[in-house]
UniProtKB/TrEMBL annotation:
This is WYL domain-containing protein. The lineage of its organism: Bacteria, Bacillati, Actinomycetota, Actinomycetes, Bifidobacteriales. It comes from Bifidobacterium vespertilionis. It comes from the Bacteria. Residues 133-165, 262-282 are annotated as: Disordered.
Length: 624
């Protein structure tokens, strides 16, 4: 036992690998359960420090250190389950808990991945792991918490994917993807067109915008998110009219009714769960050795050069010196994973038998006898379903370049047969929507020079219909838009070009608001001006609506993100004036932030806001 200068017991960790020692002991004993005392006796680092757990101080010190090591392994994706109450220093004589590895009831899936799959697979793994880690955090807190990010029924991820996709850990995750995923710290289940989708979002205002921008969508869970959405609807129903705001009057603008300051509700998710800022791997020595251990466990008897393993688990070297250093690190890792104690008994990390002559003469690693750790290699069925959903999302969202999106679609087709029907937890990220249902039909009409007979939803949630000539599909800040030429004779099925390049003949629509699009073969070839996307955006603002709203307090965060807005002091809050190119967007924006908005102008937009609010409230009452 190691002693500190103050006489207290000190944990001995001579090699810095006791987490792997714990893993080796539990793996070699599986499926048997080991008590705390048995673990303390068999793991050398514990035995050196805590011995036989003969007194109360040793028991308490061991319990604290073991739970710390158990948490480290859980963070790496290796869960240890218990079946008795944890030891407590307040209850002498209580039986110790028993522990074993949590391997799940189903065998792990092993697939073959090509080198070109790795960039997309790494991105999808980052997305899947980020979401499932949020769920893991929620499960640790048994009581429902407003601050716990959540995704229903998502498993704790494992590092088994590294064991069958060597080189995954050396891939670069796109910075934009990391930024988008990390900023969406919460998740809710939303019903969209009859499908349940796990939506990751920034805050409850962000979730409200998502629901309102998908007509007919409704929040299923959690309960807090449903209640927060209804608070916004009730606040929006009481919005007052800001008279003559469209005329650009000063802060002394007259309001049709006296302004009543709304009582601000408690801010939902005030202290969000802090997610890991790094990628899916920690980069520590223990983590690298764990991934190497799983890889070798999945490929027992196969031969790999030290240089090949160094490139896969450390990265591609830029110079010969870097290669030599990486090879030395991997060689040291192999030695660590095959350590035995002085008396010849297992010290904990003797995971493999190695062909030492092959390693010494040719630098080739061939491992056998992995203590049954091959059970950890591969992907659990639950995590595979989440990974498949992540690959599908990346294939149909604008977060990846077109080339990688095509690779993601190919990868999805190969993963899908390994997932049971109905078990894929479809997901989405707010602000980066999937290709809408009508995307394929509209794109085909553009490619074939056809017209489309479309139904779309306006800002009040009402359905409109018209025949147009689609010209361009473009992505703006993660959302899909279509620019259409509206000067069309629907009866004669011909696009009229007598209007020239007049901006009044163009309309830009959020593609997700086009509920239905039928291709109409024109009687004559469609010939419309080729206008750059930048010009179309400019025209949409030129033809936009002058709008304004009053807030109940200054310096609200959502105001800072409004492009082209003019902000001035107004009473206790601010008056914000802006040009709205999409009435439906402004309607959703005002409802989503209605807790802090007192009045809106012009009256036409306020009427649309009230109409949409009443529609959502009526739908909510029917569902309840």
């Amino acid at each position: 036992m190691a002693e500190g200068t103050n006489g207290r017991r000190r944990f001995s960790d001579k090699w810095g690998k006791h987490e792997l020692d714990v893993l080796a002991v539990l793996s070699s004993a599986f499926p048997q359960w080991l008590t705390s005392r048995q673990i303390a006796q068999r793991v050398k680092a514990y035995a050196d420090s805590y011995g036989e757990l003969a007194d109360q101080a040793a028991k308490a010190a061991f319990a604290k250190q073991f739970q710390r090591d158990r948490a480290k392994l859980a963070a790496m994706g290796i869960a240890i389950e218990s079946r008795q109450p944890e030891y407590s220093s307040k209850s002498e004589g209580q039986d110790f808990a028993s522990y074993r590895l949590q391997l799940g009831d189903e065998p792990r899936v092993r697939l073959h991945f090509e080198q070109e799959d790795l960039p997309v697979l790494a991105a999808a793994n980052y997305l899947a792991r980020s979401i499932s880690m949020s769920q893991a955090s929620e499960e640790e807190h048994q009581q429902t918490s407003r601050t716990a990010p959540r995704v229903p029924q998502t498993p704790i991820p494992g590092l088994g994917l590294d064991s069958i996709a060597p080189g995954l850990g050396t891939q670069t995750i796109p910075a934009q993807l990391m930024k988008v995923v990390d900023s969406r710290r919460f998740a809710a289940t939303v019903d969209v067109d009859g499908e349940h989708i796990n939506v990751a979002y920034r805050d409850t205002d962000d979730l409200a915008m998502y629901v309102l921008e998908h007509p007919g969508a409704s929040i299923i869970s959690p309960k807090e998110a449903v209640e927060a959405f209804h608070r916004r609807l009730n606040a929006a129903a009481g919005l007052q009219e800001l008279a003559d705001a469209a005329k650009g009057e000063s802060a002394a603008t007259v309001v049709s009714q006296p302004l009543v300051r709304q009582e601000p509700a408690a801010e939902e998710h005030a202290k969000p769960h802090k997610k890991s800022s790094g990628s899916f791997q920690t980069g520590s020595e223990v983590d690298r050795r764990l991934r190497l251990m799983l890889f070798l466990s999945a490929h027992l008897g196969e031969e790999y050069s030290l240089a090949e393993l160094a490139e896969r688990f450390i990265g591609r070297p830029r110079t010969d010196d870097e290669l030599k250093k990486s090879v030395a690190v991997i060689h040291k890792d192999i030695n660590t994973l095959t350590t035995v104690s002085d008396d010849g008994e297992m010290a904990g990390s003797q995971f493999f038998d190695i062909d030492w002559s092959l390693l010494d003469t040719e630098g080739i690693v061939s491992a056998t006898n992995s203590l049954g750790l091959e059970r950890l290699a591969g992907i659990s069925p639950q995590y595979l379903s989440l990974l498949t959903a992540s690959v599908s999302y990346l294939a149909h969202s604008p977060l990846l370049p077109d080339q990688q999106r095509g690779q993601a679609q190919s990868l999805y087709q190969r993963l899908r047969p390994h997932v049971k029907a109905g078990e894929t937890p479809w997901l989405s990220l707010t602000g980066y929507e999937l290709e809408p249902n009508c995307f394929t039909a509209v794109r085909r009409a553009i490619n074939d020079g056809a017209l489309i007979d479309m139904e779309y939803t306006d800002g009040a949630g009402r359905t409109r219909r018209k025949v147009v000539a689609p010209a361009k599909i473009f992505v703006d800040e993660g959302l899909y838009y279509v620019a259409v030429w509206t000067n069309v004779d629907a009866k004669k099925r011909v696009a009229k070009t007598d209007g020239g390049e007049d901006s009044a003949n163009w309309q830009v629509l959020r593609l997700s608001r086009v509920e239905h699009a039928d291709i109409v073969e024109p009687d004559k070839p469609v010939q419309i001006p080729d206008v750059p996307v930048g010009e179309l955006r400019k025209w949409s603002f030129d033809n936009g609506t002058a709008a304004a709203f009053i807030t109940d307090q200054p310096d609200l965060p959502f105001i800072k993100n409004l492009p082209g807005a003019n902000v001035e002091s107004y009473g206790e809050g601010e008056k914000v004036s802006l040009t709205v190119s999409s009435d439906s967007w402004f309607v959703a924006f005002c409802i989503a932030h209605a807790r802090h908005i007192l009045a809106v102008a012009p009256a036409t937009l306020r009427s649309m806001i009230v109409a949409r609010t009443e529609r959502e409230l009526s739908l909510g009452s029917k569902e309840s």
